[in-house]
């Protein structure tokens, strides 16, 4: 009888350890919504996301405090003029998906022409043979693979200006 109770106790301990391991896998952080009952309360939704629960100083302090007006501002893009969108692809941030979205899904007067089997799309301005989008999906790897900001600040103006006559170059 004593041997059987040891086996049952061992089985319960093993089950508890298994449950803890699964819980850590499914919910690794302290912000697990499954375990936090007060996360569903309206007070928790209004709480400052940068303040720790125990009121200790936050580990993450936002560097840029953008107002709602800053985030919702409207930028007028003139596809018929000299405006140019430069897409800087930062690795591992969904840039490939967003870059494809720029050339395939945006509703414009003259959308990009993407052909099956080609990675590059043609994104010309209406009535012109010049591009309005500078990205790997429209101009290719003009500034190298995953060019960083420093490289782009030197590369983009020279590549864009090399495609226009001097008298047609816009001031930047």
From TrEMBL:
Q: Name one Pfam family in it.
A: Sulfotransfer_2
CC annotations in GO: membrane
What's one GO MF term for it?
A: heparan sulfate 6-sulfotransferase activity
Which region is the signal sequence?
Answer: 1-24
Entry keyword Transferase? yes
Q: Which Gene3D superfamilies match?
A: P-loop containing nucleotide triphosphate hydrolases
The record gives the membrane topology as: Single-pass type II membrane protein
Catalysed reactions listed for this entry: alpha-D-glucosaminyl-[heparan sulfate](n) + 3'-phosphoadenylyl sulfate = 6-sulfo-alpha-D-glucosaminyl-[heparan sulfate](n) + adenosine 3',5'-bisphosphate + H(+)
Q: What is this protein called?
A: Heparan-sulfate 6-O-sulfotransferase
- Subcellular location, record wording: Membrane
Annotated source species: Xiphorhynchus elegans (elegant woodcreeper)
Family per record: Belongs to the sulfotransferase 6 family.
Q: What is its EC number?
A: 2.8.2.-
Highest taxon, organism lineage: Eukaryota
Gene name per UniProt:
Hs6st2
């Amino acid at each position: 009888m004593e041997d059987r109770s040891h086996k049952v106790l061992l089985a319960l301990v093993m089950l508890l350890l298994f449950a803890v391991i699964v819980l850590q896998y499914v919910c690794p952080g302290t912000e697990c919504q499954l375990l936090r009952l007060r996360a569903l309360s309206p007070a928790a939704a209004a709480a400052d996301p940068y303040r720790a629960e125990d009121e200790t100083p936050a580990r993450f302090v936002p560097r840029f405090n953008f107002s709602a007006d800053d985030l919702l501002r409207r930028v007028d893009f003139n596809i018929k003029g000299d405006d140019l969108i430069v897409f800087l692809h930062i690795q591992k941030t969904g840039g490939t998906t967003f870059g494809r979205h720029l050339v395939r899904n945006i509703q414009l007067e003259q959308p990009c022409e993407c052909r099956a089997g080609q990675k590059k799309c043609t994104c010309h301005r209406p009535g012109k043979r010049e591009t309005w989008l500078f990205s790997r999906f429209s101009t290719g790897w003009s500034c190298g693979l995953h060019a960083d900001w420093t490289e782009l600040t030197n590369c983009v103006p020279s590549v864009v200006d090399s495609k226009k006559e001097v008298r047609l170059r816009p001031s930047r």
